[in-house]
What does this fold into?
Amino acid sequence: ETGVTQTPRHLVMGMTNKKSLKCEQHLGHNAMYWYKQSAKKPLELMFVYNFKEQTENNSVPSRFSPECPNSSHLFLHLHTLQPEDSALYLCASSQDGPGTGNEKLFFGSGTQLSVL
Amino acid sequence: GQNIDQPTEMTATEGAIVQINCTYQTSGFNGLFWYQQHAGEAPTFLSYNVLDGLEEKGRFSSFLSRSKGYSYLLLKELQMKDSASYLCAVKANDYKLSFGAGTTVTVRA
It folds into this structure.
């Protein structure tokens, strides 16, 4: 069992679909993150949750809706996405949130999303 | 915004040494990370530098010069399994990590 688990690994969806990405961390960490990784581009931070509270929304369109029911689980709800949203979506966790000095990130393997 | 630059691709021979450079222009500095990402897999932590100098960890070393806004990751005695993307990430004053686009290293026999 890896430290951070993401499901599904691959997802193909139409622009009118609604789907959700799931992330679970087994490390006892307090902070969780969503990142977007597009080909040949830097990782883009989307959302940060610290102790279940959202502390960062990096100007992400409302068609992406995060949910953090507890410190171990993080979801990304998707609806009416665009083809340019196709990318690898990575979840990460850290012992503590940004600014604490304990922010080494542990990543999941990601969900490869294709929007048709 | 933050600016992190690293080469797109590098190729080296098995057993050789490769140096991946990273230059950054950020609003302040609170540390620099290197991550390794194999195709289709999660990025994994390699090193963290916050003070100037060289940090050595087995075959991998990372160097930082804060005055020059520069770091490098040195991979020695290259092995085929070192073929991967290497990501440089800087923690600026806002404590958020800004990533470079990654350097794809290909190790040839």
Observations:
- Chain A is about 0% helix and 55% strand.
